[in-house]
Amino acid sequence: MTTTTTQTGLVGFLCEVTDQPVSFDQCLACARKGAPDCPMVPAAIHAAIHSIRDPQYAQKMAEEAGAKIGFSVTELLNCPRQTRLKMEVPFYEKPSAFYRMNRGTGYHHLLSRYDGGICEKTLTWKFIFRGRSILLVGTPDLVELTPDGWFITDYKVTSKPPFGKKVTLCARCEGETYEGDDGLTCRECGAILRSKSEILREYRPPQARSSHIMQVNLYALLIEKNAEKLAAMVGKSKPEKFAGAEVVYFGEKSPVRCPVKLDRDAAMTFLKRSLAALIADDLPPVLSDVDELWRCDYCPVRTICEQIHGGPVGKTQ
Ligand code: SF4
Ligand code: SF4
Question: Which of 7, 157, 196, 229 has the most CB atoms less than 10 A away?
């Protein structure tokens, strides 16, 4: 009897020019020959190949720690269906996706040399969830122990940092508004706002993106579970609280600092919901939250997702 094993995970690149799958070596060889019409150069393809993260990274750490399943914070924050499909099927990704990701890695590396706190320390937490032993793995960019407790900072190098803006709010309940079919509508109380007296205008400073807020909150859980060890690293005793957190977006002109509220209950709720989806027997459903549909535009398993779903997903569904 012959047994056929199919490789899963990222198995090659999707050519920028032909949209056809190519092996990593074929792509590099093509780039070295000049790759007509392709924006990629050999060094960028080489960097892409060498930045592919081991898909079993968290799983291997889990096994070493005696846990059954391992997930990284990044895996928890992704679309759960995408995380599952990436583990279960072979897929290809364009080298330009790695280019986008790697452009910030160099500056991130420089930032990690700062010696005023605990930089890029990988933290783990082993626990039982629905009868399974799970290891959560995450690496906060910077953890500082201040007189008021832990302060977490996460860095994002991006060409599109968040910016402050004037927002229109409902004067009745101060809820946010959107342009509905019947006019300006309050998201909270559903009122249709027709006159100036029904509207408030307010300046909102730049806000961290929701997935980045949750990322920092998940790091807070990991810090809480490793507090004694981390405090010992800086020669202090374990604090009982957090001083705060922020996400710093490094845009092209200057950094944009966004304070983040730590909410332990929200982080635990998110953790349980994500884990439930990731370990369920069935594939998690397609994304339906309008604020999350952008993920489908960058999803390397979108074609497979749509085939299984039986129709388009994302903004076009
Ligand atoms: S170098 Fe460019 S054109 Fe050549 S295979 Fe890779 S992506 Fe395609
Ligand atoms: S296409 Fe969208 S819904 Fe499907 S796996 Fe990717 S991100 Fe998730």
Answer: 157
